[in-house]
Each structure stands twice: as C-alpha cells, then as structure tokens.
Amino acid sequence: MEGSDTYNNSSNSNSPTSSCASLPPPPTAAAAAKAKVVVMSPCAACKILRRRCAEKCVLAPYFPPTEPTKFTIAHRVFGASNIIKFLQELPESQRADAVSSMVYEASARIRDPVYGCAGAICQLQKQVNELRAQLAKAQAEVVTMQLQQANLVALICMEMAQQQQECPQQQEFESSPQQSSMEDFNVPSPHHHYHQQSNNINFFEDNTSLNSMWEPLWT
C-alpha cells in the first residue's frame, strides 16, 4: 500500500496539469485590446470628435493625427457626417482628391463667406484675362518691330545699290586727263609757262641790244 501511494504521488507530480501550472497565464482579450489602443493613435477626425477610432475608419487615411487643422476646416463647413457620407459614396481611388477639394472649398468659404471658392475662381480668371491682354500687346509690339527692321534693311539695300551705281561714274570722272581739268579751270600748262619765260628773256636781250645801239648817240 505504501508503495502504491508513493507511485501515485510520483505520477501525480509528473502529470500535465502540474507542468501547465508553472507556465504564465495567457493574456486576456481586454489586455490585448488595451495594448493595441496604446500602440495605435486615433486619427485627427476621431480625436477632434472625441470618439474611438475604429480599425476600418473611413477618415483615418485622409486625416492623419499630424494634420488636425485639415479636418477642423472641413468639419467647420461641411460637417463630419457629410464628409463620411461623401467618402462612402466614392471609390477609394477618388477619395483623396475629394478630401483635398473639400478642404480647399472650406478654406475658401472661411476666407470669403459670400463667394467662397467662386470668388477665388473669378479672381484667377481675371488674372488670366489680364495676362492674355499683356501677351497680345507684346506680340503686337514684336510684329511692329519686325516690320520696322524689314523696312530699315530695305532702305539700306537701296542706298547700297545707289552707291554701287554712282561709283563707276565717279571713277570715270577721276580717270580723265589732268590737262582737261586744268583747261576747265583756265590754268596754264607748264609748257606754256616755259614758252612765256623764254619770250620774256628774248625781249630783255633785245632791249639791252637797243640800249647799246643808242648809247653812242648820247655821248
């Protein structure tokens, strides 16, 4: 009997229940949810609305916790329920553009409560029209300058052609004999001047001979 008791005690000590008792208890679902909440921060929309951010929150991908102003502006004009409704009606590929559009329209409405984004669009259209008018004016000035340049080039070409026509006549005039030019201005030629000098010398000699002939008469 004592041997059987010792065997039972040893078998009880080696049973699985005794080994399981030494392991730590598994974490409960509440503890796991608590740990998940600590790790995951709520989106800016749920944080502003003071509600729990679900795992499949529609607003979380487009309103991160680092951009609370983005949701504040959209919520102020459209409201949270309308934003959620808009996003649920659109496919996921268009939701990011829709959120950007809503934020832009809301900020424009806050800046200009009367006209909103329509006022900004009108202002941009006005600037576009002014720039178009300036562009047309600049293009007209460019065309005018091109025409003036073309006229100037034509005048220069005409003057060059006239100069080329006048150059042969001037060369012919410059290549005429020097004697003709001297005769035109009544300038005696060097030969005529030499002949006149020789005549003067002969006349002087004749006068001296006459003086020598009349000299005995006076004596």
Describe the protein's architecture and organization:
With 219 residues, this protein is mainly alpha-helical. The chain contains ten helices and no strands. Helix 5 (68-77) packs across helix 7. The longest helix is centred in the middle third of the chain and has 58 residues, at 117-174. Residues 1-24 and 29-39 have low confidence and may be disordered.
Helix fraction, binned, reads: over 70%
Determine the N-to-C terminus distance.
218 Å
Indicate the mean pLDDT.
74
- Low-confidence stretches at least 5 residues in length (pLDDT < 50)? 1-24, 29-39
> How would you spell out the order of helices and strands?
HHHHHHHHHH
Per the principal axes of the C-alpha atoms, what is the gross shape?
Answer: rod-shaped
Major sheet attributes: none
Please report which band the strand proportion falls in: under 5%, 5-15%, 15-25%, 25-35%, 35-45% or over 45%: under 5%
Round the Cα radius of gyration to an integer and report it.
61 Å
Number of helices in the DSSP assignment: 10
| Helix/strand structural class | mainly alpha
Could you tell me the number of beta strands?
A: 0
Describe how the helices and strands are arranged.
Layout: H1 2-13, H2 16-21, H3 29-39, H4 44-49, H5 68-77, H6 80-89, H7 92-111, H8 117-174, H9 178-184, H10 190-218
Helix pairs in contact: 5-7
Report a brief summary of the structure.
Pfam families: LOB. This protein has 219 residues and is mainly α.
